[in-house]
Amino acid sequence: MRRKVIAGNWKMNKDIQETVTLVNEIKERLNGFNKNVEVVICPPFVSLVVACGLIKGTMIKLGAQNMYHQNDGAFTGEVSARMLKAIGCEYVILGHSERRQYFKETNEFINLKVKQALANNLTPIICVGETLEERESGVTDQIVSTQVKGVLAGLTQNDIEKIVLAYEPVWAIGTGKTATNEQANQVHKLIRKLVAQLYSWALAEKLIIQYGGSVNQQNAFELLSQSDIDGALVGGACLKADSFVSIIGAAGEVG
Ligand code: PGA
């Protein structure tokens, strides 16, 4: 059975003091939690070092929200996978729809980052998902398939074992509109089938596919109970310890 992975994408929220408070609150509430759930927090770059110190010895893992695809060099304002690894990150979110929308990231560019993350032993959480317009025009399957093929281009079987995919319908992010359990599970199945065609069923069966888009403590259990939903990438609801830990609790109940 696939383990559940719950990741909190803090986006551009929480300064250093607020990071200390939130991480300590999450730690406190997770104390004694012994279910097989992988918990990841992804604070802004400037909070990563402090967060890393605070989560030492706990079940919480650290992730970044983005990175550049080169290790070093004249790339003003960028941060590399090597640097993230050196400060204790184990995960990195790549290709989030906000990066695609506001910073014009393409599947090809995200693919370069995925390869660089893997080369530095970071687990990429690779995001895909259709816009409302695309869903309404009935092209969700084509869009998601193109994204998956694009971001995974050139990856080996061995690489696929080390990635996490996140299906995040853009229309459900930060809007309070969640995909229905069936809508989400259907796309997760499509992604798994595609990975099986590209690689093998054995590999596809092991692949962790998270759902993201307005996941909260009310809908988490139902979503996470679906056959092909293996975790959640949580935005708004991860900014409060109570809701984030409730979602982790829901994953534990399902698992
Ligand atoms: P949301 O964000 O939970 O606030 O919808 C999810 C995400 O963008 O990863």
Architecture overview:
The chain has 255 residues and is an alpha/beta fold. The model has no long low-confidence stretch (mean pLDDT 97). It has 12 helices and 8 strands. The protein is 44% helix and 16% strand. The N and C termini lie close together (9 Å). Helix 3 (81-86) links the parallel strand 3 (60-64) and strand 4. An 8-stranded parallel beta barrel has the order 1-2-3-4-5-6-7-8, surrounded by 5 helices. Helix 7 crosses helix 9 (181-198). It has one domain (4-254): Alpha-Beta Barrel (TIM Barrel), CATH 3.20.20. The protein binds 2-phosphoglycolic acid.
Question: What descriptors fit this protein?
Answer:
single chain; about 260 residues; alpha/beta; TIM Barrel; 8-stranded parallel barrel; 12 helices; 8 strands; about 45% helix; globular; binds 2-phosphoglycolic acid
Outline:
With 255 residues, this protein is α/β, with parallel strands linked by helices. It contains twelve helices and eight strands. The protein has an eight-stranded parallel beta barrel, surrounded by five helices.
CATH architecture: Alpha-Beta Barrel
**Fourth CATH level, the homologous superfamily:** Aldolase class I
Terminal CA distance: 9 Å
Helices and strands, in order, run as EHEHEHEHHEHHHEHHEHEH
Number of helices: 12
Q: How many domains make up the coordinates?
A: 1
Biggest sheet character: 8 strands, parallel, barrel
Look at the helices and sheets and give the structural class: alpha/beta
Low-confidence stretches: none
The hetero compounds bound to this protein are: 2-phosphoglycolic acid
Backbone CA Rg = 17 Å
Q: What is the CATH topology?
A: TIM Barrel
Arithmetic mean pLDDT: 97
Silhouette: globular
**Beta-strand content:** 15-25%
The strands making up the biggest β-sheet line up spatially as 1-2-3-4-5-6-7-8
Helical fraction equals: 40-55%
Number of strands: 8
The CATH top-level class label? Alpha Beta
